[in-house]
Design a protein that fits this description.
Layout (H helix, E strand, L loop, with lengths): L2 E5 L3 E2 L1 H16 L4 E5 L5 E2 L1 H16 L3 E5 L3 H14 L12 H32 L9 H11 L4 H23 L8 H39 L2 H7 L4 H38 L5 H10 L3 H27 L5 H33 L2
Parallel strand pairs: 1-3, 2-4, 3-5
Length: about 350
C-alpha cells in the first residue's frame, strides 16, 4: 500500500488549504492509498483551513483510502482534537437489499393498504351518488353537466373516428380472408356482431380512459399537490361529494351514449368498404347488417359500459388522491391511472365474456 507524505503550510487557511487540497489530488491520482499530513510546521489554522482537511479526508474515504496526520502541537493539537471525529468518520454502508420474502411482504402490505383505500372510496362514492341526494344532502348538478359536456360532447369526434377506422380495417382484413369462398357479404354480419358485443364498448372505453381517465387523475392530483384538497377538507367540504361524485355520475351517463355512437361509426366504416370496394349495393349491405343486429348482442355490449365508466372514473380519482411529490408525481399518477384503467377494462371484459358466452349459453 503506497503512502504519500504532505507537509502542511505554516498558516492553514482558505488559500493554503486549497493548495494543500490540490497536492492531495495529485497524490491520489498518482495512486496513493494513504495520505500522511505533517502538521509540525503549522502554527495557525482557521475554520476554513479545517474545512479543507475535512474535504481531503472525505475524498480519501470515497476512494477507499486512508487519511492520517502527525506532528500537531499546542493550539493546532486542540483544533485537530475537535476535528478528529469528523476526519475519522466511517462512510455509511449502503443498505442491504431486501430479500425475496421482505419484498413480497412489502408489496403485499402496500397492495392491501391501497386496496382498502380504493374500497373506501367506492363506498363513499356509492353513498354520495346513489343515497345522499335522496336524503336531501345535495348533488352538484351544475358540475355534473359540465363534466358530462367535457367527457361526452367533446369526445364524440375522436370516438366516432376511432371506431369508424376500426370498422374499416376489420372489413378490409376479413374480406380478404373470405374472398376465396365467395362469402364477402358475411363481412357485414361480422362487423355488426363484433361491434355490438365487444369492439364498440372496448374501443370507446380505451379512448375514454386515455382521454378522460388521464384528465381526472391529473386534475385531482394537481389539486392535491397545490393543497386545494386539504383546503376543501379544512372548510368542512366532503371531497368525494365535491370532486368524485359529479365525475362518476357524468361518465356513467355519457359512456353508453358514446358506445352507441361508436357502434354506428364502426358499422359505417365496414359499410364504406363493403359498398365502395367490395361492390355491394347499399340496400343489400344494409339488409345484411340489420339481419345480424340482435338485441341480445347489443345489450351485452351496452351492459359492460356501466362498469367500464365506474372503473375509469374511480381509478382516475383514486390515483389523483394518492399523489405524492410535485409535478413529477402528477405525471406518474396520470400514467398509472391510464395503465390501471386499461388493465381493469380487460379484466371486466373477461368476466363478461365468461358470463355471456359460457354460463348463459
Amino acid at each position: 500500500m503506497s503512502e504519500t507524505r504532505l507537509t502542511a503550510p505554516e498558516q492553514l487557511n482558505n488559500a493554503t488549504g486549497a493548495q494543500l487540497y490540490e497536492e492531495a489530488k495529485r497524490a491520489w491520482r498518482a495512486g496513493a492509498a494513504t495520505l500522511l499530513l505533517d502538521l509540525a510546521p503549522t502554527r495557525d489554522m482557521d475554520s476554513l483551513g479545517g474545512a479543507w482537511l475535512l474535504k481531503i479526508a472525505g475524498d480519501m474515504r470515497r476512494r477507499d483510502g486512508e487519511f492520517k496526520w502527525e506532528g500537531h502541537q499546542e493550539a493546532i493539537a486542540d483544533f485537530m482534537t475537535m476535528l478528529e471525529p469528523a476526519l475519522q468518520m466511517k462512510p455509511k454502508k449502503p443498505p442491504k437489499p431486501p430479500g425475496l420474502f421482505d419484498s413480497f411482504t412489502d408489496t403485499l402490505v402496500n397492495f392491501v393498504g391501497e386496496f382498502g383505500e380504493f374500497m373506501g372510496l367506492c363506498v363513499d362514492t356509492l353513498y354520495w351518488t346513489a343515497v345522499a341526494p335522496f336524503e336531501g344532502r345535495g348533488f352538484r348538478f351544475n358540475a355534473f353537466m359540465e363534466e358530462a359536456h367535457e367527457m361526452g360532447v367533446r369526445a364524440v369526434r375522436i370516438v366516432c373516428l376511432m371506431n369508424f377506422l376500426l370498422g374499416l380495417i376489420i372489413a378490409m382484413l376479413s374480406a380478404a380472408q373470405v374472398a376465396a369462398f365467395g362469402m364477402q357479404i358475411y363481412v357485414a354480419d361480422l362487423i355488426m356482431i363484433g361491434f355490438a358485443r365487444e369492439l364498440a364498448a372496448i374501443m370507446t372505453a380505451v379512448v375514454v380512459s386515455a382521454r378522460t381517465g388521464a384528465a381526472i387523475a391529473a386534475e385531482i392530483a394537481t389539486m392535491k399537490v397545490q393543497e386545494e384538497v386539504d383546503a376543501l377538507r379544512g372548510m368542512g367540504i366532503n371531497v368525494v361529494q365535491y370532486l368524485v361524485t359529479p365525475k362518476v355520475a357524468a361518465l356513467i351517463v355519457v359512456l353508453p351514449c358514446l358506445v352507441t355512437l361508436g357502434l354506428v361509426s364502426g358499422v359505417a366504416g365496414g359499410a364504406l368498404w363493403g359498398v365502395l370496394v367490395l361492390g355491394f349495393r347499399p340496400a343489400v349491405w344494409y339488409q345484411q347488417t340489420l339481419g345480424a343486429a340482435y338485441m341480445s348482442d347489443i345489450m351485452q355490449g351496452m351492459l359492460k359500459t356501466f362498469f367500464f365508466a365506474i372503473a375509469i372514473a374511480l381509478i382516475g380519482c383514486h390515483n389523483g388522491l394518492r399523489v405524492r411529490g410535485g409535478s413529477r408525481g402528477v405525471g406518474l399518477m396520470t400514467t398509472r391511472a391510464v395503465v390501471m384503467d386499461i388493465f381493469m377494462l380487460i379484466c371486466i371484459d373477461i368476466v363478461f365474456a365468461a358470463i355471456f358466452y359460457y354460463w348463459l349459453e
